[in-house]
Structures are given as C-alpha cells and as structure tokens.
Amino acid sequence: xxxxxxxAALRAAGCVFAEDEAALLLAxxxxxxxxxxxxxxxxxxxxxLGWAGFDGLRVAMAPxxxxxRRRSELLVRLAADGVRAGDLAVDLCCGSxxxxxxxxxxxxxxELHAAExxxxxxxxxxxNLPGASVWHGDLWDAxxxxxxxxxxxxxANAPYVxxxxxxxxxxEARDHEPRFTLDGGxxxxxxxxxxxxxxxxxxxxxxxxLIEVSDAxxxxxxxxxxxxxxLPAVHTDDGLDATAVVGTLxxx
Length: 252
Known about the structure:
By secondary structure, the chain is of the alpha/beta class. Helix content is 35%, strand content 21%. It is built from 11 helices and 9 strands. The chain has helices spanning 3-12, 18-27, 32-40, 45-49, 73-80, 98-106, 119-128, 171-176, 190-197, 199-202, 218-227; strands at 51-54, 57-60, 88-92, 111-116, 133-136, 151-156, 203-213, 231-237, 242-248. The chain starts with a helix and ends with a strand.
C-alpha cells in the first residue's frame, strides 16, 4: 500500500491529521494492513502504535488503556516544582503510568508509588515504571499504610468528564477507553471529592495534591479542597488548554 492510499483511508475515516498519522503508521514495525484497519475502525492511534508521546517521552501503551493527554503535562510540571530526590510521590489513577514516568525524569531519585483500578493499565504502568511500586486498587486505599503522612506530592489525573457529556466525546475515547477512566459523575468531580476527602491522612505537612479539571470546574474544585482542609491554588496553561488545582496541606 502506498502512502497516498494510507492517507486517503485515514481521511475517509475522519482522521483530522491523516498525513501525520500515515507517516507514523508507515514507520511502525509489523504489517501495515492490520494497523491501518485498527485505526480506521476507530481505535486510538496511540493504542495502535503501542506508544504515546508525553512530556517528550514515549510511553508504552496497550489496547483498552487510557491514553495520556498532553494537557496533563501541566500536572507533571507543577508537581516537579519543589520536589527533590528522596521525596515520596504518588500517581493516583495512574493509567499507563505516564505522569509518574515523566515526573521521575524531571526529578530523578524520587520514591514513586502509583495506584490504578484497571488491571490492564496496571500491567502497562509496571512496564513503564521499572523500580516503582504500582499498586492495583482504588485510589488511596491501594497504597500501603506505611505511606500515610509521608507523601510530598500526589498527582491525580482522575476522570472529570460529567456523565451527560460522555456521549459528546470522540468515539475513539468512548469505545476504546474504560468508561470509569472518563466519567466523573454528575458534575465531573465525584472522584476528586473522594481523593480530597482523605488526602490529609496521606500528605506530609506542606505536601501537595494536584488534580486536573476543566476551566469551568476550577471554582468548585477550589471549594472541595477548602472543605478537605487543603489550601488551594489554580494554575492554567493556555498552550496545553490545561487547568490544574493544587491543594497544599498546611504545616502545623
């Protein structure tokens, strides 16, 4: 199959960046036909290729695992600020482990723990995070009790799409990523409330919890952090179309 035919097939399938995708598929190892068929059928390009680009890294991917979005690079950048080697970091809702992977590159020597509910994603994250502890379970409950009160920074790229908005998402997300990795409940903040509710038990004094939200959710997220006893701050990056809320546990 020549490159023009690959581009035409991708365009017919509605791929906006058909030329770029065609170049990646043509350069991928293995037979082109099955890869192209998967992409044309709507599977995310990253799952088809077996990797996703994130914060300058190649993150290994697997079918059905949540694909990291570039906007989450804001969380990593904020988390790295003020963290140093030896500090304890936690990646909640870690998915493929992309955020923890990028944080370890930015701050070598941190002690990294990650937690994820999806067993397929756990396997993927363990491959991306050699030497880290990747725990299978629900949020903080997945972590060993010995980490309580010691966490310097926790990143949580938790699902924040309101339930009614799931139907408006691209089909590649709706059909090929687990719904629980997307659906954040009525206002999109159900999982964030659960994370914030017990964050004080896990954070060290001065420790920080970082969550990703939409711009419209920033105000409600600030309020839920305040109710949880955390001091909130909102950060945005227009280039990434990203909004993050950082909650700090007061010292003393």
